[in-house]
Amino acid sequence: MTEDVDVLLIGGGIMSATLGTLLKDLQPDWKIVVCERLSDVAMESSNAWNNAGTGHAALCELNYMPQGPDGTLDPAKAIAINEQFQQSRQLWSTLVEEGVLDAPSTFINATPHMNFVRGEKDVEYLRKRYEVLKKEPLFAGIEYSEDSRVIHQWAPLLMKQRLKSDQPFAATRVPSGTDVDFGALTRQLFAHLKDSGVEVATNCEVRKLKRQKDGAWLATYRGTVGRTPGTIRAKFVFVGAGGWALKLLQRSGIPEIKGYGVFPIGGQWLKTSNPAIVAQHRAKVYSQASVGAPPMSVPHLDTRVVDGETSLLFGPFATFSPKFLKNGSVLDIVTQVRAHNLWPMLKVAIDNPSLLRYLVGELLKNHSKKVDSLRTFMPTAKDEDWELLNAGQRAQVMKRDPKKGGVLQFGTEVVTAEDGSIAGLLGASPGASTAVSIMLGLLKTCFPERMPEWEGRLKELIPSYGETLNPRPEVAREITGETAQVLALTA
């Protein structure tokens, strides 16, 4: 038998959880089904140990504010990313107040965001960045120092036994940063959806998507463990399946997916739970990426709070696997190839030799070499205190470009059919942190006729919906202050 539904969400990550939560709130009479191929939700990229949980607000991510050829710094992208994260915080705050989410400390904790750089060129850049951002309301409270004593107070592990040399260093700090356990957040959202009547089917792997004559979609799924195969007929389909989203969108036959491919990049972290070390560091400290490294590989030393336990992560170190998901297939990288995306992918390989050299260099690093990299942040690091932890897979978008033939895109992108009946998400960071903004954009694109009746409730859920905070300092202070209070975010 074929089950008829209004909405089918494919993938049990933060994106499907966010979209499902919004749709069930806005349209409670709709029948929604979620299909997740693994035995539980939040086991791939949304899992806490598969991502850094930074809560991307552009407070410390230097790649969101590159220096132009003339030396100027444009804060526009950094501000836009921060605005998007503020929407996520507002929704979570409302859901906490309404009892949908548990106590804030179960998924979000105040953790200062810092930058630490060395060398005259990077110090000058960081100083310029600070001078630009300190004038922006959403970056209020940013601090800057080149004084080792001040930096030691902010993050002692950065300065202990650091040898004095001619090389200058500098740091910035934003006390209002956060650490987010997206795995816990995702599980809580799906638990609420189940309580609201949404079927969350695990061990359910969607294999085919076929458009019907009336515009609906027929999804064929197989049961991976103890589930009978079947079909679902859906008026709307969202594919939030990580790297597999590309494969399913290709199988759907929508022309909008033509020219797209993905390049999988894995990762590893160095992790320590040694209480004596963990107690000396309460921050997320980002630096500059090495030459040729992708933005997602910017080195950082992070405080993580997962299931109530605090630990430190350092990395990420790039690895390579042909799989699009941690639990994917080794044939993924080959089976994505089509006539329409072959040249764009080849052009990306030709145009990015530095990335390939970087990946080879990363693959040659053993445990000791990785701890050596950590010592550029933490001079006192000892090999025996740190263990290697495999992170998730990131499927970076490759797509057709009219000028270059093909480009490698870092970030997230929603691909939507012309009639809005199906959409899928491709890409990686800062996806999870900006899930609410991404899903709001999807609602406008796929359900334009519904937006007038939904906007009132959306404004209740997200007070800044439809507006921006940064141009309105007083409103920004009020709304960010209220969300910080509800989410118990005190540095």
Report how far the terminal alpha carbons are from each other: 54 Å
Low-confidence stretches: none
The number of helical segments is 15
What's the CATH first level?
A: Alpha Beta
Query: Any idea how many domains?
Result: 1
CATH superfamily: FAD/NAD(P)-binding domain
Q: What integer is the average pLDDT?
A: 93
- What would the CATH topology be? FAD/NAD(P)-binding domain
Largest sheet: 10 strands, mixed
Shape assignment: globular
Strand pairing plus helix content: what structural class?
Answer: alpha+beta
The counted number of beta strands is 20
For the CA atoms, what is the radius of gyration? 22 Å
Percent strand equals 25-35%
What is the CATH architecture descriptor? Answer: 3-Layer(bba) Sandwich
Portion in helices: 25-40%
Quick structural gist:
The chain is α+β, with helices and mostly antiparallel strands and 491 residues long. The protein is built from 15 helices and 20 strands. The mean pLDDT is 93.
